[in-house]
Design goal:
199 residues, alpha+beta, 17% strand, globular
Length: 199
């Protein structure tokens, strides 16, 4: 058998194998790189300031706020008084993102800017009636792990957005998300929520 046959067959097999590997790699990379490409024309791209996921949506998906809702936003950002404001809710963490929509294109102004003005004896997340714990006001604030028992219908107050929420909603939001047992606010998704609300 000629020498070129002895050396040529393994060489040809090696070249064909390399080409197959390169082609497979390009085929696998192709769809992912296209997925990361530019969004469709006319859509907006924005990282959620709460959960950091990438949001891609059309301006037509924004929901205009009512007069009272705009007033609550103005309370947080007075400079938007008299402007038209709309909302987009993050599909991952349900954070509310607010935009000025009376210009050439929507302008992001913040997330989770307001909560209802009055704090009643109900959870602002699920509307459950809240019960007052047996201990005195402030006794276990900042030390919830020392409280004798946190019933699901006890109230907590978020120190960041001032929302009043029940222990059950806070625990549901925090499930598998914190390593130290800290509770996360279901309204603004910040932590720790460690103040007890006494209705």
């Amino acid at each position: 058998m000629p020498n070129w046959v002895v050396w040529g067959i393994p060489l040809a097999v090696g070249v064909l194998g390399s080409l197959a590997v390169v082609q497979l790699a390009l085929r696998q990379r192709g769809p992912r790189s296209r997925g990361r490409g530019r969004a469709k024309s006319g859509t907006m791209e924005l990282p959620c300031s709460v959960c950091q996921k990438e949001l891609v949506f059309a301006p037509s998906e924004l929901t205009k706020l009512s007069g009272p809702e705009v007033a609550l936003v103005v309370r947080s950002i007075p400079r938007v008084r008299g402007r038209s404001v709309a909302e987009y809710v993050c599909p991952y963490c349900e954070a509310s993102h607010y935009f000025l929509v009376d210009g050439a294109k929507p302008e992001w102004i913040g997330a989770n800017l307001y909560t209802p003005e009055t704090k009643t004896g109900r959870c602002q997340q699920c509307r459950k009636a809240l019960h007052a714990p047996a201990w005195s006001v402030g006794q276990y604030d900042g030390r919830l792990n020392e409280a004798p028992f946190l019933r699901p219908d006890y109230g907590l107050m978020c120190p960041f957005c001032q929302s009043v929420i029940c222990v059950e909603c806070a625990e549901r939001t925090s499930h598998n998300r914190t390593t130290d047992g800290a509770l996360i606010c279901p309204r603004c998704h910040r932590q720790p929520v460690d103040r007890v609300f006494h209705p």
